[in-house]
Amino acid sequence: xxxxxxxxxxxxxxxxxxxxxxxxxxxxxxxxxxxxxxxxxxxxxxxxxxxxxxxxxxxxxxxxxxxxxxxxxxxxxxxxxxxxxxxxxxxxxxxxxxxxxxxxxxxxxxxxxxxxxxxxxxxxxxxxxxxxxxxxxxxxxxxxxxxxxxxxxxxxxxxxxxxxxxxxxxxxxxxxxxxxxxxxxxxxxx
Length: 190
Known about the structure:
There is one protein chain. It is built from four helices and nine strands. The longest helix is centred in the last third of the chain and has 16 residues.
């Protein structure tokens, strides 16, 4: 999927304003002592990743991440020799299909076609009626954050935050939402 530079810029700021709750996943090296970290250096993602059409780097995201790292007590340095860890981040943009339809009395989407389950008879069946579900496309942004031990060059932590994007959020709300998203992913670092 191709994104124009304007669309990437709009989506980078929209990453912060997802309608749905962000999903955060992370994995840490249990042998690495994160309490010993005092300094970090930003390093660029691999060229192969950055050249992909769906990849984005945003200064606003990096500023929000810096603020959360500073709140943690970590100081950014510009020299690798002074950094305890090196951090990489990038954003991937994608389109996903979602389905919605009329709700039943329980507030759940009602399916009228395809395989059906009849709870009264405790039986599966098939219904030829066309489904009431409507399909629509949503934009999803995934922020990836990777941390490497400067000395061993070994990855010691990785995390992703995925959220639905809403391009209609007012600009004044975007910085606030960026801060929230940065806090959610940084809080997963041990």
